[in-house]
Amino acid sequence: MIHTERIKKLNQKPLKEGDYVLYWMQASPRAHCNHALEYGIKKANRLKKPLVVFFGITKQFPEANNRHYTFLLQGLQHVQNSLDKRGIKMAIQIVSPPKGAIELAENASVVVVDKGYLTIQREWVKKAIDWLKCSLIQVETNVVVPVETASAKEEYSAATFRRKINKKLDEFLVPLKMEKLITHSSDINMDSYSFDDLHSIISQLGLKSKVAPVSKYKGGTLNAIKLLGTFIKHKLDHFPDRNDPSTDYLSHMSPYLHFGQVSPLHIALEILKTKSPGKSTYLEELIVRRELAVNFVYHNPEYDNLKCLPDWAYKTLSKHQNDKREYTYSFKEFENAGTHDPYWNAAQLEMVHTGKMHGYMRMYWGKKILEWTHDPEEAYQIALKLNNKYELDGRDPNAYAGVAWCFGKHDRAWKEREIFGKVRYMNDRGLRRKFKIDSYVGAVNNLVS
């Protein structure tokens, strides 16, 4: 089922007498549980046209590097193969996404596009609206509850957001039917990259940052679904204990969710099938917390800087910005895990070498960057830059919200103290008290040695 709340006509142009329906895939590169794809197939069948899927690989996506592009391309290979089996032509080109979509739309009856939440993704769509000569329809598929349906404004915290989104869940937690395309498009002649050599495509992008791909996580919907199955079978029961860094009770879905390679709706429905005691805790993270982050970046244009913080947090950090720091480190010292703290260093090394950091350690990691830099503005930018450079799920609503949380976003005021003011504080004593934190350090050191 595709709810009308997911569908939005973005311009007033009419249907054209074109050769095909075009699905401009940008934020949701997957063939599985994709409302935009299924809507495109429905539209093509109604018009008795073939469906063509386009994905534009831009060389200029902010802060993207070899690690990110490799994971993306691995996923696109899965998509292309899956669509080919359904008789759907997929054109993958190295081109500015709106430019490529506009060019292919010259021969299209209508264009369908999925919905992204970052500024750059929204700018792409705005650019296309100005140039397209046919109807442009956006279909939202990367959240369980459409962002504007969940809330029409930026929410203050999970508590305020939870009440609103939970009222909508029963309506939107329904399976998506896979449609069969009547008129195949596989034989349409159209420029597209093949995936015989991923390194060749990467080299053509001319990336300045050479952050290496990781071996622990491979992109693609099939890999995500396999990993999800393992999580449900072996880890979901233990998910309420997920905060312990010395264990691994995480689903590791965040890279796949970030790249749109797996549907949050599919994950939620698979979790709901279980009788696991970890079910409600996991759904809280997947839906309430993740979609609160989407709400944040969608409604707050300052999501990537300190101005996004609530007034109390911004004021208290400003008040304490000149407080004396016992330690201060440069960006390079942070990047090279060169602090005095073995726990922080281990978290940084885990991120650099695996593309992902344990969620609890990411909170501690961000708090300590605030404590060990000259001022909050510098700390915020260092945290974002490191996170976006090395995390596979960086440059993402969850990533921006996660960094902002370390500075007071979506949180309440606590007892006032040096440097942090009323922002929540974390220390290494808490790690030692709650967890076998030295086991975590040892495991990371073994991993990177």
From TrEMBL:
Return the Pfam families for the record: DNA_photolyase (PF00875)
The record's annotation in Gene3D superfamilies points to: 1.25.40.80, DNA Cyclobutane Dipyrimidine Photolyase, subunit A, domain 3 (1.10.579.10), HUPs (3.40.50.620)
Q: Where is the signal peptide?
A: none
Biological process terms from the Gene Ontology for this record are: photoreactive repair
As cofactor, the record names:
coenzyme F420-(gamma-Glu)n; FAD
The lineage's top-level taxon is Archaea
Q: Which reaction does it catalyse?
A: cyclobutadipyrimidine (in DNA) = 2 pyrimidine residues (in DNA)
- Coiled coil, from the record: none
Q: Which InterPro entries match?
A: Crypto/Photolyase_FAD-like_sf (IPR036134), Crypto/Photolyase_N_sf (IPR036155), DNA_photolyase_2 (IPR008148), DNA_photolyase_2_CS (IPR032673), DNA_photolyase_N (IPR006050), Photolyase_Class-2 (IPR052219), Rossmann-like_a/b/a_fold (IPR014729)
Q: What UniProt keywords are attached to this protein's entry?
A: Chromophore, DNA damage, DNA repair, DNA-binding, FAD, Flavoprotein, Lyase
Q: Where is the Photolyase/cryptochrome alpha/beta domain?
A: 19-147
Q: Which GO terms describe its molecular function?
A: deoxyribodipyrimidine photo-lyase activity; DNA binding
Q: What is its EC number?
A: 4.1.99.3
Task: Name the protein family.
Answer: Belongs to the DNA photolyase class-2 family.
Q: What's this protein's name?
A: Deoxyribodipyrimidine photo-lyase
